[in-house]
Amino acid sequence: MPFLLLFLLLFVTTGIGNGSTFRMIPIIFDAKLAGPVLGWTSAIAAYGAFIIPKVFGTQIQNGHPEYALHGFAVYYVTCLIVNWWFYARKNAEIKC
């Protein structure tokens, strides 16, 4: 059950992170830079489709797939905190 719950948490936070990232880029960058930044961000995001299964495979071979889920959960919570700090808090420099 913890594996399933953490896996679902991973997908929910991934969707939230992707949506918020691609929504914020045109707000943060001017029209001239928004296109290239979106392209670069998409390329980095596509790398996740490679690295996430690779990490899961390694952890399954080691007998501890839950370590990958814990690591990804910590990463996404960190991303949420960074986004909140720079863009969503009350006195943020760029309000989104």
* Rg, nearest Å: 16 Å
* Number of distinct beta strands: 0
- Give the rounded overall mean pLDDT: 88
Give the helix level as a range of percent: over 70%
| Strand residues, percent | under 5%
Outline, from the CA principal axes?
globular
Number of domains as seen in the coordinates = 1
The major β-sheet equals: none
Order of helices and strands: HHH
Count helical runs.
3
- Classify the secondary structure makeup into a structural class: mainly alpha
Could you list the spans in which at least 5 consecutive residues all have pLDDT below 50?
Answer: none
Task: Explain what the structure shows.
- The protein contains three helices and no strands.
- With 96 residues, it is an all-alpha fold.
- It has one domain.
- Helix 1 packs parallel to helix 3.
- The mean pLDDT is 88.
Question: Descriptors for this entry?
Answer:
96 residues
List the helices and strands and how they pair.
Elements: H1 2-28, H2 31-62, H3 65-88
Helix pairs in contact: 1-2, 1-3, 2-3
